[in-house]
Design a protein that fits this description.
Elements: E1 2-3, E2 8-9, H1 24-79, H2 88-107
Antiparallel strand pairs: 1-2
Length: 127
């Protein structure tokens, strides 16, 4: 049957008249080779699946170990005594102020080229 909409050709019945009895041995060897190739491919795919499953298990074990380590560090940080006034943000504020002092000292340098303190426009190249 020819189904043009689905682009299918369906065969209901076939008679094998084109095969000679002498060709049967050749057909069997070709099909046996094909079966061997299929078995090889199946073994290869199974070994790849096993390898991937092993890697996944190792990854999950490593992730669990890291999570446990992170939780331990969080507990250690919680158990540490807090700063001088008991505010954990106070240390950050003092660090921010000291970093600001360093930035101010670094900013005191030469001005931009072409700018003068008197406000006049002087050329970089004197004539």
């Amino acid at each position: 049957k020819l189904d043009q909409k689905s682009s299918h050709f369906e065969v209901d019945f076939v008679i094998g008249r084109d095969i000679r009895k002498s060709d049967i041995g050749s057909i069997i060897s070709v099909l046996s080779g094909w079966c061997d190739n299929c078995d090889t491919m199946i073994r290869s795919i199974e070994s790849q699946v096993d390898r991937v499953n092993t890697e996944k298990h190792q990854h999950l074990t490593h992730k669990a170990a890291l999570d446990a380590k992170i939780n331990d560090l969080k507990q250690q940080l919680k158990n540490q005594p807090s700063g001088e006034d008991g505010d954990p943000d106070s240390r950050m504020e003092t660090e921010r102020v000291s970093a600001g002092d360093r930035n101010k000292k670094a900013a005191k340098g030469k001005g931009l080229r072409g700018s003068s303190k008197s406000g006049g426009s002087t050329s970089f190249w004197k004539q």
